[in-house]
Amino acid sequence: MTQVKSYAAHQADKPLAPFQIDRREPGAGDVEIEILYCGVCHSDIHTARNEWGGTQYPVVPGHEIVGKVTRVGNEVSKFKIGDTVGVGCFVDSCGHCDSCKDHQEQYCENGHTQTYNSLSQDKKTITYGGYSSHIVVTQDFVLSVSDKLPLEKVAPLLCAGITTYSPLKYWGVKAGDKVAVVGLGGLGHMAVKLAASMGAEVTMLSRSPKKAKDAKELGAHHFALTTEKETMEGLANTFNFIIDTVSAEHDYNEYLKLLRTNGVMVLLGIPPTPSDVQAVHLVMGRRSLVGSLVGGIKETQEMLDYCAEHNITSDVEMIRMDQINEAYERTLNGDVHYRFVVDMKSL
Ligand code: NAP
Ligand code: ZN
Description:
Quinone Oxidoreductase, Chain A, domain 1; Rossmann fold; 11 helices; 26% strand; binds NADP nicotinamide-adenine-dinucleotide phosphate; binds zinc ion
């Protein structure tokens, strides 16, 4: 075991604070990574504050990790010391169920291991995430990161990037499709960039008028305020695909009405509270309401390569580790442009 520095939440209603954690010595197939940057995802906040239930304290959040390989086990073939690498939302899975065999490790039928607040495959050890100086991960769950792009802007691709890329690919969004993105935060701004890069006509649906200019700069063709009743009514039956990234309770019915015949609305945001959906909005127009969880390792590598090729990165605001509690408050107030990233040198 190696003791490393981290930041942890010890209780739902207490600020995160410095904490020492044990990292395992790299096993034969393991890669040890010195973390350079870690993005701040809204899931970190839901978990630190136990909004979904099931948080095991102390919890060290962080699943948008970019760093350098510092040690490798003797069976590691994919990486060498000094390589630039990434780690996303999960670090292991059973490897033999149908989902794993199909490169959909995020849907592992025997329970994948998330990067933090999750059981390792030994079903005993709790994982600690990227708000830490180092992490040890089996090589199959480590991604190659191009040095071509600024690494702090690449970090958010490991969650916000793949979570929005995967449904766009799975539901086959193509040039000319009308796509709406609901909520302009970390996931939302990546959804706009990625959908626009695939040739879709993108509309940003936001409750924040001050984000209109940014939405256009990020690549949205249109901006609509969800708080304006007439604007929303005017958008009825408009979109082929809606990507909903909102983190808090809101009325799905208002958005389902905006789908065209056979349109699909994918939920990415995970509000902690249940919602009512009126069947009529699905029945009329044979619309679908679906969900999607990040993406598999193979697809995450594909997304990183796609972003390197198309020069797509996240818009970030860098913070020190000791600014994390303030960053959480600002995220909750919608004051994030558009992802906080922790510079791990500050830990
Ligand atoms: P974020 O940066 O905080 O963005 C969420 C956006 O939702 C806000 O910027 C805001 O946009 C909108 N919003 C927030 N509260 C709202 C409210 N009360 N009513 C209406 N709109 C509201 O969060 P994020 O990191 O993008 O994460 C978004 C959600 O996705 C979280 O629930 C997170 O846990 C989840 N998530 C899911 C996956 C997955 O695999 N499915 C992966 C990562 C994250 P406007 O100001 O523009 O309205
Ligand atoms: Zn995330």
